[in-house]
Amino acid sequence: MKKLFAAIAGRGLVIIVRLVTAPRAIWAGIEPIPRQRVYFANHTSNADFPTVWAVLPGFLRENTRPVAASDYWLKSRLRAFFGRDVLKAVLINRDRAGRDPLEDPVALMVAAVDEGASLILFPEGMRNLTEDPVLDFKTGLFHLASARPEIDLVPVWIDNLNSVLPKGEVVPVPLICTVTFGAPLHLRPGEDKDIFLDRARMALAALAKAQGA
Amino acid sequence: MTQHAEYAQLFTGLVLALLAATLAAAALRRWGGMTGRKAIIVQTLFARINAWWAMLVALSLAGLVGRGGIVVLFALVSFSALREFLTLTAKRRADHWVLMFSFFVALPGQYLLVYFGQVGLFTIFIPVYAFLFLPVLAAAKGDTSGFLTRVAETQWGLMLCIFAAAHVPALLWIEIPGYAGKEILLISWLVIVVQAGDIAHFIAPRLTGRTRIAPSIHHSRSWEGFIGALGTGVVIGTALAWITPFAPWAAALVALAVSVLGYAGGLVMTAIKRDKGVNDWGHLLPGQGGLIDRLDSVLFAAPVFFHLVRFFFEAG
After folding, report:
1. pTM of the complete model
2. Which residue of A has its CA nearest to B82?
3. Residue-wise DSSP of B157-168
4. Could you report the average pLDDT of every consecutive run of 10 residues in chain B (316 residues)?
5. Within the 101-120 window of chain B, which residues sit less than 8 Å (CB to CB) from chain A?
6. Which of B 64-93 lie inside 8 A of A, CB atoms?
7. Which of A130, A163, A168, B13 is the most buried if burial means most Cβ atoms within 10 Å?
8. In angstroms, rounded to a whole number, what is the distance separating the alpha carbons of residues A125 and A104?
């Protein structure tokens, strides 16, 4: 029963996102084919994940899970329903000191990948409210790439969503958004953590520039 | 009864014309031996013809519902156009309320005024009240960076995408002696004349070569296109005088005015696209960009057409 509700809510969410932001996917470097991937995107708004999710073709969407903060998504029953049942998020406890060793974020992401899921993650770690297009990345992307080096890491630039629903606002305005999927990256053998993270960040920033942001 | 006869004739004529255009384009694609740039031109023609089919279906369905249907149709047109426009304008986080006001107050407000026939209010609602209120809303948030640009660009969007567009359905509320119940034909006439000019502007230079008018705006702007657009608009507008309240000579003059404005609309909107560094306003219509790309000429022509009809042909 819950599954049915979740499927309906998921469908509804896609329709709402499409109505409000008329999002358009630009595949600039990869094709939308059924292949396991880790999408990493810029993060400016709470609607980021639903937007990426909505522009993915259905056969990719089914199998794609966001990596999201549990303190946000478990705050209320409604959010928990959307986070856990509709979006099937991999929920991460951001409280480093307080969390159980079993809640290690990288282990959770690797487990999801091993189950065959594609992931969407926001390596900036928080919403970017600055004038910089992309903030420094957290290390999770690197650890995930070290654990599963063969998987495609796809940079995803979400444009204009920060105008649709800026932080602190409740009502979205219907502007057009684009979601650009760039060429995939892989961790090079022996590549240093900071060099890799910088390379990934540059790949995302390059997509932003190509979109004129 | 006569009004139904005119609708039926116009509708049949349009369906036949579009059918002929579709078949001609299909034949050109199939047997014309088109390659390279010529093949792209045929593709563009196809996309245009499909857009006209869509316009015909949308207008006919809305017309069947009645005045309310036409108002709702153009409110949706305004919504899509405004969304395309404001996606490209300057804005900051502080402009969220301004954007909310534009979409959720100004747009429905304008169309409600049209629906209730408040001609006096509807012609000043956006140019006066929205004009004065918008900057107040923007200033209230306290972010002054690029203030005038942000406010002015948003107001431009409201004027074009809501105010100008709303003049099309407003045509239904003009009382013309001996024309009651047929006002929707005025909308058809306006759209046909302007779209005919548009397509002539696209085709003429390809038949005759081009002498550029404004090379800094766009290479497609040529004297051949300009004259082709005006000529076609006037010929079609005069030929269709029977669906309007105008005498043939008056129809020719109104068609000339509307065609000039339609051309100017295309020119101005191209200049804005140039400024913003985009080729198209959006991606609503596959192969031909956004809604504004197709309707810029109608948006520009509508207010002046509305006032010409009101001034010269309205009762009393």
Report:
1. 0.85
2. A175
3. HIIIIIIIHHHH
4. 73 90 86 75 84 91 91 95 91 89 96 93 94 93 90 95 96 89 90 92 80 75 88 94 92 96 92 85 73 91 95 82
5. 102-104
6. 79, 83-84, 86-87, 91, 93
7. A163
8. 15
